[in-house]
Amino acid sequence: MDSTTTAASGTGRGTTSNEGSGRRPAVAVLTSGGDAQGMNGVVRAVVRTAIGAGADVYAVYEGLQGLIDGGDAIQRFDWGSVGSIQHRGGTVIGTARSVEFRTREGRLKAAANLVQRGIDRLVVIGGDGSLSGADLFRAEWIGLLDELVESDRITPDLARRHSHLVIAGVVGSIDNDMVGTDMTVGADSALHRIIEAIDALSSTAASHQRSFVVEVMGRHCGYLALMSAIAGGADYVMIPENPPPPGWEDEMCERLRAGRAAGRRDSIVVVAEGARDRDGAPITSQGVRDMLEERLGEDTRVTILGHVQRGGAPSAYDRWMPTLVGHAAALEVLEAGPDHEPQLVGVRSNRVHLTPLMDAVEATREIPRLIDAGRYDEAMAMRGSSFTEMVRVFEGIAQVAPTDVAPSRRIAIMHAGGLAPGMNSAVRAAVRFGMSRGHTMLGVRGSFQGLIDAEIDELAWGDVDDWLAVGGAELGTGRSVPTVEQFYAVSRALENEKVDALLVIGGHRAYESLHRMLAERDRYPGFRIPAIALPTTIDNNLAGWEMTIGADTALNEIVSAVDRLKQSAKASRRCFVVEIMGRYCGFLSLVGAMSVGAEKVYLHENGVRLADLADDVEDMGRSFRAGRRFHLAIRNENASVGYTTEFLCQLFAEESGGAYDVRPMVLGHLQQGGNPTPFDRIHATRLAAYCVDWLSTQLDAGTHEWGFVGQRDGRLATLPFTRMPELVDPTFNRPRDQWWLALQPVMEAVAVDPTH
Ligand code: ADP
């Protein structure tokens, strides 16, 4: 952790003038527009990366208005200024909306304040308004400096030395409304807040048989509404980009009635604040409530979540992703030449993704225009293919499947491998989506042994109603891989139960089992069916899929445990060595370390060397003597055979010279527990629907391929088991290519002060 000084305490604030130094690059960072959780993580990463790169760094308080106000609103920051801010909600450097910045006079003052400090590089964290304001400022910069020279407010030499303003933008917005990035900073945390609320409402609604209308933010963007409807198990959702069809009132009431008849105790309708009908008339949460009460005659309550969605601590994702983009944004402004087109620094598939800033802003602003013009299909297309896909998936699982069509095929669902939060969510989605496609869905209890013992039941729509939000595995799981001797029994069971297709939701053991069975497939008639594996494990050690179901929940469990640990250690000088799961895969350790602001991480992938440990002991001693109060080291459970967590603690304690004490902390099975996060629920649902679609296609075509969920060209795909040897390191059961290892330099750039 970073505990020497904090921005909020003001102790990190230093000089406010850099005029004349002019030789070192000077970077400023600000947060503007609506606040969002995770903005602090971006600020921290920008400040530390820029310091590490040898720049002077300034934070601008109160957004673009702070540029105009100057004085104390523009503060020199050091490494410690951004200590202990990553876990805090909102933005510690403040944000504001500035009318003055919309005027040239305001921007002239802003230019004077920056150039007088030698600042000509700026990272702006905000929404499309802030980013376009900053871009206008950049475009006017030369003209503004000329005016300042003419009025003798700056010297021609100063203007010459800072003749260009280089900017980069990062989107801080809970709405996830920006084109050019998969996720905006704050959107994941907002989903956490919404889902906490919907889970709480579900429990009270279920006790009284109530209906709730939940209004979430999103004037022009349905992301929060759609995703929270999926992750919260809602019955109906209204989003601005995809207004409901004419006659939706009847359809909605009918859907809610059918849900009740199928066993639901509560009904939930999610309404985005900008929802409208096909004619453009607003659909309000109150209007929906009145209609439900009148037509269904049932007690219906409205909950408008409002600013709760912006509040609370950032989720794990809103700690590591902001670190990644903040790091990249700092490098972007430091490395870009004067004529470089300003970029929006976002993410695509967990990697930094740059888009020309104003292209992204323009595309983002086009969507509300399309919605206003009633061009909904184009608005949806601009949200991207996964958004459209999720609308279809939601429709498939939210409606009670018709029971009057003769079921065609029998798909069995089972687990194998370790427990992972989100397993239940995947089963629920598979059952409902499968039923919507006319299949009979079977649940196998107790993994492969359960299959052999014929522990198989048909699962009805209502049976899985409350499985979405609960951790664990209602069907049970097991770690054993069927032996060749058991294949006959497995095959017989599949035949006896007339299983037409198999979905195995699990981890490494699920993959290994199917892979082995496939090798013997021709010998067993029961195996002549299509089969697919869906990746669930907290370890994130499966090939083909970059973030397995369960890993995000585990990261959030780690973050909340370590947040508490840090608080407990406030009063002493202490080093904690926290041991984290993951088997031989360091994903949870590295990304966990980034999320909690650890100083050091020990991974099996890197190995642990005695010489490195000696350096670590040196560094630790130095920083504690310099005033540090807390040092956090994260160790993957299998990082090293000999250098165990206990060994590291003894070594550090022995070498501390009494300057600090050392404690181990083994998080253990806590990491596998917990209810699945919105991200894990959403992806479990998405992957389950994909698997059912894939199996259905096989059944229609009469083929029986086997595979596991992966990606091809950025889209979901099924990879054949024949690729396992090429993709998996068999010694350590982890992918040969681990994308997240590229995050290591980012973690290092923000973890340890290079100037100490
Ligand atoms: P967001 O950044 O969240 O979209 P706003 O649209 O309110 O929030 O913009 C934040 C601030 O950005 C405004 O208060 C204003 O100072 C500045 N801004 C927005 N648009 C412009 C513009 N066209 N020219 C100059 N400044 C602008």
TrEMBL record:
GO biological process, one term: fructose 1,6-bisphosphate metabolic process
Cofactor(s) this protein requires: Mg(2+)
Region described as Disordered: 1-26
MF term (GO), any: monosaccharide binding
Gene3D superfamilies associated with the record: 3.40.50.450, Phosphofructokinase domain
Record field: catalytic activity: beta-D-fructose 6-phosphate + ATP = beta-D-fructose 1,6-bisphosphate + ADP + H(+)
Compositionally biased region (Low complexity): 1-17
Pathway field: Carbohydrate degradation; glycolysis; D-glyceraldehyde 3-phosphate and glycerone phosphate from D-glucose: step 3/4
Top-level taxonomic group: Bacteria
Pfam entry (one): PFK
Subcellular location: Cytoplasm
EC identifiers of the protein: 2.7.1.11
EC category name: transferase
InterPro entries for the chain: 6-Pfructokinase_euk, ATP_PFK, Phosphofructokinase_CS, Phosphofructokinase_dom, PKF_sf
Gene Ontology CC annotation, any one: 6-phosphofructokinase complex
Keywords linked to the UniProt accession: Allosteric enzyme, ATP-binding, Cytoplasm, Glycolysis, Kinase, Magnesium, Metal-binding, Nucleotide-binding, Transferase
Domain Phosphofructokinase: 27-330, 410-695
Family recorded in the similarity comment: Belongs to the phosphofructokinase type A (PFKA) family.
Record function comment: Catalyzes the phosphorylation of D-fructose 6-phosphate to fructose 1,6-bisphosphate by ATP, the first committing step of glycolysis.
Protein's name according to its UniProt entry: 6-phosphofructokinase
